[in-house]
């Protein structure tokens, strides 16, 4: 997820360029009644997502594992209720696409000769964050927001692409290599490798944003799932734990 470091850095550059535009008389921490009770906006989100899992600790046959973050993005609308000028309650409805990849190596056995597998996961969902926003006026034209709260996610559809590589020595002493591919569903599909995923998820959201002039807003947020979304009903006694994690930059327009 190293490429994500550029998102908060870009926000810092934008902020340093914008703040000097106008040295306004706005109070930095304004405790008066909210100037606007209701704000409506639209926004886009782009960043990366991954899965936090304990597969290697749960399954001794896994000798090596590499988890890779993938693209995450979406769009949505927001409603913000001004409680005071420094305090607001916000909620959103976002349509999101998330991707992740995982590569695993296994000890070969006669029953399971597979020695490596690569999984590409893709999912689509609706996400509803609800958060408190604390606001600071950097000038008359620039407002800095700190946001914290919770989110709920409902999975709509998704897929898992499986690429399996294996090799073994046959009765003639020859090396036999096997390559197979398969595609399964992402949610509640018993054919998914190790486990599929439950549709619902919930967790914590933390972020920051900058409102520029009256309409433009840019920000960065982290979404950390608290629910174990691993649907392991077909895996017997093993119980892996899987959680969602996403880091997203946002750009929006407030009406």
Describe this structure in words.
By secondary structure, the chain is mainly beta. It has two helices and eleven strands, in the order H-E-H-E-E-E-E-E-E-E-E-E-E. Strand 8 (200-212) and strand 9 form a beta hairpin. This is PorT family protein.
Q: Which value, in Å, is the CA radius of gyration?
A: 23 Å
Number of domains as seen in the coordinates: 1
The whole-number mean of residue pLDDT values reads 89
What is the chains' assembly state?
Answer: single chain
Biggest sheet details: 8 strands, antiparallel, barrel
Order of helices and strands: HEHEEEEEEEEEE
Provide the descriptors you would attach to this structure in a database record.
single chain; 255 residues; mainly beta; 8-stranded antiparallel beta barrel; two-stranded antiparallel ribbon; 2 helices; 7% helix; elongated
TL;DR of this structure?
InterPro entries: Beta-barrel_OMP_2. It comes from Candidatus Amulumruptor caecigallinarius. Helices cover 7% and strands 64% of the residues.
